[in-house]
Automatic annotation (TrEMBL), chain A:
The lineage of its organism: Eukaryota, Metazoa, Chordata, Craniata, Vertebrata. Keywords: Mitochondrion, Ribonucleoprotein, Ribosomal protein, Transit peptide. It comes from the Eukaryota. It is found in: Mitochondrion. Belongs to the mitochondrion-specific ribosomal protein mS29 family. This is Small ribosomal subunit protein mS29. The gene is Dap3. One of its GO terms (cellular component) is mitochondrial small ribosomal subunit. Residues 16-46 are annotated as: Disordered.
UniProtKB/TrEMBL annotation, chain B:
Its main location: mitochondrion. This is Small ribosomal subunit protein uS7m. The lineage of its organism: Eukaryota, Metazoa, Chordata, Craniata, Vertebrata. It is found in: Mitochondrion. Belongs to the universal ribosomal protein uS7 family. It comes from the Eukaryota. GO terms for cellular component: mitochondrial inner membrane; mitochondrial small ribosomal subunit. Residues 71-228 form the Small ribosomal subunit protein uS7 domain. It comes from Serilophus lunatus (silver-breasted broadbill). It holds the Pfam family Ribosomal_S7. GO terms for biological process: translation. Keywords: Mitochondrion, Ribonucleoprotein, Ribosomal protein, Transit peptide. InterPro entries: Ribosomal_uS7, Ribosomal_uS7_dom, Ribosomal_uS7_dom_sf.
């Protein structure tokens, strides 16, 4: 039994690592499981297992969509957004730092069992890249584009494809809030004709294309396609770096639950949004990186025990994404579990008297199996 | 309850086969009196031999020779298990769907905790101690506040039925409090609100001695007070 990771020993190793760094001076003393380093670029192995704070204004600017629902509830309850620094994220940062932007974009696939924290690691990477000044193309959940679509219109651009105005306009709205600066600076390379009377001239800022998509909801999917194409072309020049962050990338190559009016099933390539996104995820452009997550939770027609890339992507998806860098995300290590438990205690999330005892902690560890989602669900009513 | 298996001798023998339930019950109320109850509390087993009292020592000796009843599925050795919460969950359960009832209960407790914590984190320093954040404390206190002290019972005398004020047993008080809370949430709320939300609201109101359930308790007390004249009809 691993009793060596009880609080006293964890405290000693954390304190020794803190002493070797520059000592941060917080306004009020937080526990040893926190770090006041809120810039992800400066996170190193010393910060592993600790929680760092994202200021709430930044959360609204960087994550208009993309954070898991339970995490958003935690932000509202505790009045702060604290994310744990974990090893897969640090690994990704080192790869991104050392990547050569003249070469084609490298694809990273974050995979792991259910509830191990893949989406949170993706959000950590998105925060890092937005702090570094990259243009972040964050698709919060690709599964939302292949299921539960109330309106499917036939695309005006290509008769075989289907448009999804609601999903496209929602995504455009959130994209606008997170990347205002780039939408003003980047200019269109071509003239785009939206209808008989509307067109966007060459050289206009991309923000106009986004506004056009938001104003004319029927054209929103085409606006998304235009935005993606423009960004992809212009990132190769090297004026900015592009991060394509897709959560639940296995949705792009699976099946959909949507049906056409004659009740025949829709395959993903017939959807404009999915078609354009597949082109973004190809490695035929340079000047950035593609970080994706596999997700079984929202996936369609996949067994709940599937988590490996081959199982979730299928043959088509795996061949499309191959070659990629796989990044496995395990359950909490003993140190990370201690950190999470300490955070819950400190924020008074664990209210039950027995939760503070060693017995309670051992029971939580056993029942959750050190799985982050299970621990969160268990600690909810306690 | 043995099931004689028809060996394919004829349709009649197959039809004569006894009915066997799908779930074979292990724990009956018809246990032999020599069977002892299981001891689930971990603290009991951690105590060294010297600290045990006389009865406990006798019980430990008996356990070596007597058989023990099967533990019921609702008995838990978890440090977080609470008998009142289990009782409430059972009362909320419909059609035997304990999974749903339990998830509703956990969502209720979490909702109470979230609401109270939000208030706590936004309150100024001097008021922080007054805000109770523990959902279990709120639950127990709310139930205690809802329990009636005296109840009414129908007694027929001379052809007429009278509502006679009667003292209530502890179990009956607890049952009435839980029943009132659940019926109040099920019936008198907007159709689209979810049960955890409704329960959370009612529990917080009852914790502060406000709300429709406390009002119902007070009306019962007033009726009992009004019918004080018939109190001598009670013979127990």
């Amino acid at each position: 039994l691993d009793h060596g990771f009880g609080l006293p020993t964890a405290a000693k190793e954390c304190l020794s690592s803190v002493a070797s760094q520059d000592v941060p001076t917080p306004e009020r003393p937080r526990g040893i499981f926190h770090t006041s380093e809120s810039d992800p670029a400066k996170h190193t192995e010393q910060h592993e297992g600790r929680h760092y704070d994202i200021p709430l204004e930044e959360v609204k600017a960087v994550f208009p969509h993309g954070l898991p629902y339970r995490f958003q509830q935690q932000i509202q309850t505790f009045n702060e957004a604290r994310v744990m620094v974990r090893k897969p994220a640090l690994e990704l940062f080192s790869y991104l730092r050392s990547s050569n932007f003249a070469h084609p974009a490298v694809r990273y696939v974050i995979y792991g069992e259910r509830g191990t924290g893949k989406t949170m690691i993706l959000c950590h990477v998105v925060h890092y890249c937005s702090r570094q000044g990259w243009l972040v193309l964050h698709i919060p959940d690709a599964h939302l584009w292949v299921k539960n679509c109330k309106e499917l219109l036939q695309s005006t651009y290509n008769k075989d494809r289907l448009d999804q105005p609601l999903q496209a306009s929602a995504w455009l709205k959130n994209f606008k809030t997170s990347n205002e600066r780039f939408l003003r600076e980047l200019k269109t390379q071509k003239k785009y004709v939206w209808g008989k009377r509307e067109c966007t001239e060459e050289g206009r800022p991309l923000g106009e294309v986004v506004d056009q998509g938001l104003a004319r909801v029927r054209m929103a999917s085409d606006a998304v396609g235009v935005v993606l194409k423009e960004i992809k072309q212009q990132s190769q020049r090297g004026s900015f770096q592009l991060l394509v962050a897709v959560d639940g990338v296995n949705a792009l190559w699976g099946r959909t639950t949507l049906r056409k009016e004659d009740k025949s099933p829709v395959s993903p390539e017939e959807l404009t949004l999915v078609h354009n996104l597949r082109k973004m995820v190809m490695n035929n452009w340079s000047g950035g990186a593609i970080v994706t997550t596999l997700s079984q939770t929202g996936s369609l027609f996949k067994p709940s025990s599937a988590y490996l890339p081959q199982e979730l992507l299928g043959k088509e998806g795996f061949d499309a994404l191959d070659p990629f860098v796989p990044i496995p995300v395990p359950n909490y290590s003993p140190r990370e579990f201690e950190s999470c438990y300490g955070y819950y205690l400190e924020r008074k999330w664990l209210q039950h008297e027995q939760a503070r005892t060693e017995d309670g902690k051992a029971e939580l560890r056993f029942l959750s199996g050190s799985n982050p989602r299970q621990l969160d669900r268990l600690a909810g009513p306690l | 309850m043995a099931a004689p298996i028809a060996a394919g001798l004829g349709r009649r023998l197959r039809e004569l086969r006894a009915w066997v339930p799908r779930l074979m019950q292990v724990r009956w109320s018809r246990y032999n009196p020599s069977y002892m109850e299981p001891e689930v509390n971990k603290e009991f087993y951690r105590k060294p031999l010297e600290e045990l009292s006389e009865e406990e020592k006798e019980k430990m000796e008996l356990k070596a020779v007597r058989p023990i009843k099967a533990a019921p599925p609702s008995l838990s050795s978890s440090v977080f298990s609470d008998p009142m919460v289990s009782k409430f969950t059972n009362m909320m359960m419909k059609n035997g769907d304990k999974v749903l009832a339990r998830s509703l209960m956990t969502q209720t407790l979490e909702a109470i905790k979230r609401k109270q914590l939000e208030k706590y984190h936004k309150a100024p320093e001097n008021e922080k101690e007054t805000i109770e954040c523990n959902p279990y404390v709120i639950f127990h206190q709310a139930l205690k506040n809802c329990q009636p002290i005296i109840g009414l019972s129908n007694i027929t005398k001379g052809g007429k039925t009278y509502q006679v004020p009667v003292p209530l047993k502890d179990n009956r008080k607890r049952f009435l409090a839980m029943k009132w809370l659940i019926t109040e949430c099920r019936e008198n709320k907007h159709r689209r609100t979810l049960m955890p939300e409704k329960l959370c609201q009612e529990l917080l109101l009852a914790f502060n001695n406000e709300g429709p359930v406390i009002k119902r308790k007070h009306t019962l007390h007033k009726m009992a007070e009004a019918n004080r004249a018939y109190a001598h009809f009670r013979w127990w």
